[in-house]
Amino acid sequence: MSIERRDFLKGLGVAGAAIAATGCDYNSPVAIPAPLNFLEDPFVPYENVLPYVVQDEQLVNGVPDYIATRCDECPAGCGAVAKIREGRVINIEGNANDPISGGNLCAKGIAGLQSTYSPDRFKGPLQAGAETTWDVAAAALATAVQGGGVAWLGRYRSGSLAALIGQFMRAAGGPALMWEPLGPDALRGAVRTAFGRDALPTWHLDDAHTVVSFGADFTASWISPVEHARGWANSRDPAHGDFVSRTVFIAPRLGNSGVLADVHLSPAVGTEVDVALALAKLVAGRNGYAGPALALLSGVDASAVATASGVSAARMEELAGWLAEDRSVVLPGGPTDGTDPGALAAAVLLLNEVCGNIGRSVRFGDEQPTAHHANTALVLTLLDDCRSGKVKVLFIDDLDPVFNLPPEAKAAEALAKVGTLVVLTNEPSESTLPNAWVLPPGSTVEAWGDGNVRTGHYTLQQQAMRPLFGTRAVGDLLLAIAAKAGLAVAAATPTDATPTDATPTDATPTDATPADATPADATPTQPVAPPVVRKRLPMGSPELLGTSPSALMGAAAVATAPAAPPVPVPGLDAPDFGSYVKAWWQGVVWVAAGQPGNFEDWWIQALLHGGWFQPADATGADFQLAATPKAAGKLSGDGAVNLVIFAHPFLHDGRHANKPWAQEVPEPVSSWSWTTWAEIHPATADKLGLVRGDRVTVSTSRGSIDIDWSPSPAIRPDTVAVVLGNGKTTGGRYTRYGANPMKLIGAELDASTGALRFTSSRAGLAMSSEKAVSIPYIGSMDMTDRPINYAVSVEDLGKGEGAGSIVPMELPELDPRLVAAGIHDMYPEPDHPTYRFAMAVDLNRCTGCGACMTACHSENNIPVVGPEQMKMSRYMGWIRLSRYWQGEGETPDVRFQPVMCQQCSHAPCEGVCPVLATYHNLDGLNAMIYNRCVGTRYCANNCPYSARRFNFHTFRWPDSFNLMLNPDVSTRDMGVMEKCTFCVQRIRAVKDHYRDQGFTVTVPPEALDELTACAKACPSDALTFGNAKAPESKVSQKFDDPRAYRMLGELNTKPGVRYLARINHIPSVAHHQGAGEGGDEGHGNLGSTGGEHAGGTGNGATSAHT
Amino acid sequence: MNDLTYGAITRDILRPLFKPSVAYLGLLGLALSVMAWGGYCWYVQLENGLGVGGYQPPVFWGVYITTFVFWIGIGHAGTLISAILFLFRSKWRTGVYRASEAMTIFAVMTAGLFPAIHVGRAWNAYWLFPYPNQRELWQNFKSPLMWDVFAVSTYFSVSTIFFYVGLIPDIATVRDKTTGFVGMMYKQLALGWRGTDRQWHHYMAAYGFFAAFATPLVLSVHSVVSWDFAMAQTAGWHSTLFPPYFVAGAIFSGCAMVITLLLPMSRIFDWGKYLTTWHFESLAKMCLLTGFILTYSYATEHYLAWYSDNPYEWGIFAFRATGAYSWVFWIMVSCNCLIPLVWWSKKLRTNWVVLFAVSVVINIGMWFERFNIIASSLAHQFDPASWVYYTPSWVELGILAGSFGWFFVWFLLFIKVMPSVAIAEVKELVRPPLKADGEAAA
After folding, report:
1. Is residue B278 part of a domain?
2. Which residue in A788, A915, A952 is closest to B51 by CB distance?
3. Percent helix, strand and coil across chain B, each rounded to 5?
4. What does pTM read for this prediction?
5. Which residues of B are less than 8 Å from A941 in CB distance?
6. What ipTM does the predicted assembly reach?
7. In a domain, B120, yes or no
8. Smallest Cα distance from B378 to chain A, Å
């Protein structure tokens, strides 16, 4: 058969068309997304929608937006900033405008991002386990609410949501209990008794010469950790004041804050109250206190207390001297401390009163209103009402009472009796019972909201991204129910809607009388619900991140503004919660601000700013305690040891247990992850024959748990401490580790405050037949006298030589001819023309909180490896928080040290890589080309800091965690080495920003100070990033501090990270006598110090070449 | 030996070449299955990542590098015996050098697998070779691992050529005894060898040249391998002692391995006439010498660590002897320093059972020596906060076993297809056949 030319061309044309058609099919319209009715289709993640069919006008691909919002991971109420890339929040950081967070955020807050993307999230409303729709749910609940017997049990809420809940419950005719399992119930009760105020004072550590804590884990889990960490660090920092505070911990164990202590006193369990009173008596004897508290101290016998508690009288005298002579702050126990938490809190308040701290370091005025907070006693009563059938409809707002209450409370049984149980939660918990309505409210970044935890402190929470799933915010749900049920729509007055009015606290739940809360003269006009405003800002916008609050917020107008007509606050007929929030702000916050200017403009500014902050002035309060606090509670049971329970710094009471970052980042003190452990004194462990890898059984009459153990040289030998947070039986996939110590204790209440007594039992302790699944991450707690972590005693500080100086490195003497020729170093610093990126880590400010590690995970897409891999110490986090116990007994001297890649100028890792996957760049970074790495791992062997991490497997997030990945950072597959590069993507972004502005100059130093994720996160500002070539940069100034040294400096790797020694009040233990720092400087190693700088920091420059 | 004839020698030495016995097939099958098991383990590792190993950061090197160095060390003895002893005209090499050289080639081949097994991305292992590529990537010649690549590949190619050159006259002998397809193969391999004076003249020149060429490589390759450690600053590795210490250790383990391999061959093939007690005694003396150097090196290392007052060095050496890895250390000391001392007794070093047992003990000890160096140093790096304890996983041990399978497969195939004793050279030692001997000598 012959083919004609024309036939051939015809055939060619047909075939070509067919191929072309197939090609088109690849981009066929099938992939076009569904219409924007995602809320109606709740079970499909929004992920499959192509985002930019219609692109947002303001959006530039690759350029992140920052939206001011707030952190809702604990009740502290920090302001936050959400970083958004292409429509998704990928990072959460502190908002610098917010006075509580101070621009930083703790580990819990940063890990809060994972609550948004958790794969275990409910994708939509469920009724008894079956999928339903929001309309059906709202209608059913409206009917149920109309039937009466409604009650609310929720976590602490504030601002407009608290107001709305209050309105709703008043209209529905039921009590609203806002409760925290680890809330400061005892302290609140003690404050009410001692000062007659329904408020928590704020604790100011900044200017305290002595910080005493009776167990409060103030930098990790107590009330406002970020603020306290910053305050504590300031009090320790001689650059902040002219003093270095002493830190004293009085508790049977040392928690995350406890290990910061210079002095640890561990009185016999049960005698803490007496110790506080004895101290108060001694202080009063010294400082001549003659106030109302003096009468209460007449019966206190300090020497008898010394005998009973085991704390030496001399120690108490010494401490009393410190407290009497200078400014101090005494922190009460945390919720889990003390056998009688109420009495302990009262005694500590008394001690503060005697020390003269009330109104100075323990302030009212900017207090936290707490009248709407319920204590555990009320919750137990509510459960009784559930059991008796009085409660027919119960809303549980983001709490897990079944997990968080002791088994004696029989919470599960009580909840099961409730006809309509509504659990508002995003993830499964032990309280999402089979019969419950599970109505997921969505995460903080998916909804509007606000916060008002303190007088004069209002944060705004913008909807930073579309809800990932078919969720509906609590406020929207309540409004929908109210509309369907026809609940009272009358608006309240501004004062009426403040959160203090939201719940009747003093009444038992059944006594709640909602009717009187509805004012008769309510203005019927409703606020017009305006369109919700979302404002995006380009990176580094000064409007958001730099300007002072008062300039923007019209604070000056407060005093001068004419009395404006009252602005109505919203009611239950608001169209949606976003409008409600805005109307509430108009009616409450704007009015509180003095109605400056135009509300719409002010509102936009508030959104940009993250809220309105005008902390009230510090005031004191009248001390009116009538009776001497007395420890009456005894430990029950007859076990061999006292059982103490404490909050996990990351998992808290267990609410964060389903966040892999919170689980995996090793807990700083024990360095355990993914488990529950018991702290045991080494002597006790020896008696039981425990070795690393064993497990222990802790048992009481209520039950027993089988858990890991951790040696703690600081805990009392007669005490065992068990961490809370793990051991959920039903919960997300990451929560099924460890055991719940709440099983061990009874539902015993503190008589005076209604708080739960966590320290109420003795327990038996025995070696378990089980073996540990994992091991602690940190290998040895003994530094073995290596030049790694230095401390300087206060007495030696600034002397510059002798014991006060640090000797990281002594170079051998060079030939005088070389010195004459200007050669001071066989290995001179490489050329860094513009930048030498560097970091200063102030160990004196580091609290070991773990925020840097968590932030690094979030920023750099660092995988989580799980307990089995952690057992192989294959933690992937780029920062290791080393922890060394240097002291013993009453002077524990525990040293934390974040160790990241030190960005050495002469990096041992670089020379040994056969394929040049790691190299030194012109900016001083030890850069890493992941794609070039073949995985010989030679670099990691040769890194003396053990800072490199290897991908032993390909670690992948399950859907939908993958949506939180930072698109600026590649994810790494198995076989590739990785490590810290000082967030090089952020460096590139800021450089590009300045280049795009047409600047030819270098990035100004102040734009770099907190550039890296870890430095940005650090609540105590221990980490400072910057350009060491710029002498005016903060990091250069830190490098010039006499305390600055290089880890393992004698290896002469010339690292870009320098540590500033911790300042101790106990004698220095790591001194190298008789030499100065001289060898460290003077050979042009790090930019700013140049070639001529020779020991100018006051150190004995003893090296021959300077 | 002088009563042997050329014909008898040829017959004796070529005996293993024909008709595999059941025992042989069984051994080969065993080696193949062990090798297959190792291959499966490698597959598991390629599929899942290196995490299937027991690595505990900062212990990033473990069994694979240990085994790599072990096989490189084994690969030392062959060329040493064939080249250096040839140049020194040491007569006892004649009987043993062929098998030792084969051992060298196969040991280096085995070792050569381990860099690929060891790296995280084996599929990219070729990036270690400098070759022109359009990505304009180039290697880092500062890295001792690069030197390794060159040292090992050079050593392997030179040893292989030297080995082959030495084989040519014997291949020709086999060629003359075979027909058909097999004969064709030998014919090709014999490169037209006819045994003429002219050929012998060139042959001896070439052989001498390659011997001279290979000699420095024997010393260089393990020195370079030792730089993998000595160039790193890891305490316990960073030592100028390493090159001579590693070379001595390599010869020590290589000679022991020759004994381990040749003693059974000598018994099985009834080669007592060619592989005499004298040969093994010489090897044992070699082991005594190098073992003494090794013991001295161990002592020096510890002394220097103590004398330097360097806390990291001394920390490591104290840890090795007394810490969690002390069991490895004492295996090493017993196997390498103490047990071989029995060879000082002539009675014992001529006893074949003792010879064999001690040689195996030395091999075990030398593997643990490398493990001791690698694991203990990395497990106790500079910062105590990162101290760990590493134990190998089943995958690593499987690949270690598989490497022996791989080695023995090659070695068994070798003794089946090539004369394991140098026929031509053995013939040089006996009285040449004279016409007067008649047909019997043919």
Report:
1. yes
2. A952
3. 75, 0, 20
4. 0.88
5. 58, 60-61, 232, 234, 378
6. 0.94
7. no
8. 7
